[in-house]
Specification:
Elements (H helix, E strand, L loop, with lengths): L2 H7 L12 E2 L2 H10 L6 E5 L5 H7 L4 E5 L6 H7 L6 E4 L3 H4 L1 H8 L3 E5 L6 H9 L4 E9 H8 L8 H7 L2 E9 L4 E2 L6 E8 L7 H10 L7 H6 L5 H10 L8 H15 L4
Parallel strand pairs: 2-3, 2-5, 3-4, 5-6
Antiparallel strand pairs: 1-8, 6-9, 7-9
Helix pairs in contact: 2-3, 9-13, 10-13
The structure holds S-adenosylmethionine.
Length: about 270
């Protein structure tokens, strides 16, 4: 489909304030939809834009719930998604709805696939990691953010990596060069897929605990956690149970063990 002609016909002007950087390359869009597991699935898309990724998803999925907040895009979406009766468009701002309402609206297990505005990517990832129904999230993020999310150790492994990896398995599907977007952003992107780890749950308590663990990266966990009021003896005992020395730093434990540490300390 010639999306650009449809946008011109509707005199559409991109809104930088809504993070509008569209993708028109059908091969890339198909690859994203496939990597996100659209086949036969119930899919939630945030930011339908001109419906380019929505079409690639709708061709494969059982049902697509697509959110878009720019009212000007709805006549365009009516054209680009014409004939797909498995698509439900919603004009809500997902960030305002909250995850309980989104889960209630969808009402069955689903997967998220999205090319999001970058300023809401991280909050939305964490919002969907709290969902009881969302099994995976596949989205475009700034390349450096994807690398940080996936980092297992070293300088890049911090609160962001630990928070995601405590409840999900992340992987970079592919890098997307900035020229694949219109208008072209300053940075390259990556398609990031997060698969929820069964039996784990993301929570504000988990995030707060991990923030405390990494409060001063060079300091030991004992130092960081005692400075927020945890008894030193409790931290060393918990570290001992997990097989770590009392001088261990947060990055030595990795995400899963940090979550266990939080559980031992009654923080989660
Ligand atoms: N999916 C399209 C694509 O790949 O070409 C558009 C992607 S564009 C990066 C992001 C889209 O999200 C824009 O159309 C923008 O209007 C929409 N958007 C911005 N904030 C939103 C929000 N809070 N909820 C839903 N959609 C939003």
């Amino acid at each position: 489909m010639d999306y650009e002609s449809v946008l011109i016909k509707h005199r559409f002007k991109y809104k930088k304030s809504l993070g509008q950087n569209f993708i028109f390359d059908d091969e890339l869009l198909d690859e994203i939809a496939e990597a996100g597991g659209a086949d036969g699935a119930t899919v939630v898309e945030i930011g339908a834009g001109a419906g380019t990724l929505s079409r690639a998803i709708a061709k494969r999925c059982k049902k697509l719930h697509a959110f878009e907040i720019d009212a000007e895009l709805f006549p365009i979406l009516a054209e680009t998604l014409d004939g797909f009766d498995n698509v439900q468009l919603m004009s809500n701002d997902v960030t305002e709805l909250g995850i309980e309402t989104v889960d209630m609206l969808i009402g069955e297990p689903y997967t998220v696939i999205a090319n999001l505005p970058y300023y809401i990517t991280t909050p939305l990832i964490f919002m969907f990691l709290k969902s009881e129904l969302c099994g995976s999230i596949t989205c475009l993020v700034q390349k450096e953010v994807a690398e940080r999310v996936c980092a297992k150790d070293g300088g890049d492994f911090g609160v962001l990596s630990a928070s995601v990896q405590a409840v999900a398995e992340p992987r970079i599907v592919r890098i997307v060069k900035s020229w694949a977007f219109d208008p072209q952003p300053d940075v390259d992107s990556a398609v990031l897929r997060l698969d929820r780890v069964a039996g784990t749950a993301y929570s504000d308590e988990l995030h707060a605990f991990l923030k405390d663990c990494f409060a001063q990266k060079r300091k030991t966990l004992v130092n960081n956690l005692t400075s927020v009021g945890v008894a030193k003896a409790d931290v060393t005992a918990a570290l001992d149970k997990l097989g770590f020395s009392p001088t261990a730093r947060a990055e030595e434990l990795g995400a899963a063990k940090l979550r266990e540490l939080g559980e031992f300390l009654g923080k989660l």
